[in-house]
Amino acid sequence: MSNTFGEFFRITTWGESHGPGIGVVIDGIPPGLALDLARIDAELARRRPGGALASPRRESDAFEIQSGVLDGRTLGTPLALWIPNRDARPADYAPLASLYRPGHADFTYEARYGIRDPRGGGRASARETAARVAAGAIARQLLETEAPVEIVAWVAALAGDEAAVNPQAVTRAAVDASAVRCPDQAAGARFEARIAEARDAGDSIGGTIALVARGVPAGWGDPLFGKVTARLAHGCLSLPAAVAFEMGDGFAATRRTGSEQNDALISDAHGGIVPATNRAGGVQGGITNGAPLFFRVGFKAPSTIRKPQATVGRGGERVEFSGSGRHDPCVLPRAVPIVEAMAALVLVDCLVSRRAAPPARKG
Q1: To pair with 51 at 20 to 30 A between CA atoms, which of 135, 175, 255, 269?
Q2: Is the pTM of this model over 0.85?
């Protein structure tokens, strides 16, 4: 099902960008989990646009939990969460019903279904990710019942300009202190100027988000098709505008020999086995090895720009299209909490799958 993600901790999102609202059903939450609703609201606030570098659309994202919770604790039944759209403007998109916007899913959705929602792209809009962020905030709370997992993402590069950030030391406070969510202050200032420049030119810009998850125990994930790497890539590449994924050193590993790339194993001070380095990004054979998870996700420049672009109408006639309305010149700052949410959803699915597995045979 293309609207459902996860195996044991499953989310199903619904709703369109300029429809009545969006929502998510979460199945697989164990009973008795005390939910902190303020943390859900805080994550949604991080995703909302704000400032001169983001879309001027104003959504409060005031959510309603409609099932699965009683007196602040989960019942173990499906949890349904609804986020009404308060600032939708479907009429603004009426002229787009007769053409296909460059870089968007307009043509492909219609090719697949024979019909499409032209109101801001419908399901293809990044508005849908608010539902994922809400589900990710709940996933984090469940994760913390098992392990002190800390998930931090940040804007690591913009149009090839790389920030200098130590994944072992980066904090969420440092990330959120930056208007563009880059904890490297010098790079953040450059990024902010580049985004403003693209916005003023009627264009857009892309880049890379990095994420570290500290405190993930060894032994999470499954071989073959259930690899943590594959699950993370699946989740992150399902995001709007995501075009690339690399785990650990990623493509840099393809330029090294085995002796240069392998992470040697050593004993730590507590007698445990740990990798001496972390070129693999915390995963071996698709299963976590106890080192911090580290990956990067590449996002393309947003497709809606004010600069004129050539396209065609539904009848194949040539059309010149210039985007208008409320759009981000760069998705990266707002995508940081979304990437964190997808990582949390993957990790909590690994956690719940371990709880669901039958006990190992003895003797």
Answers
A1: 135
A2: yes
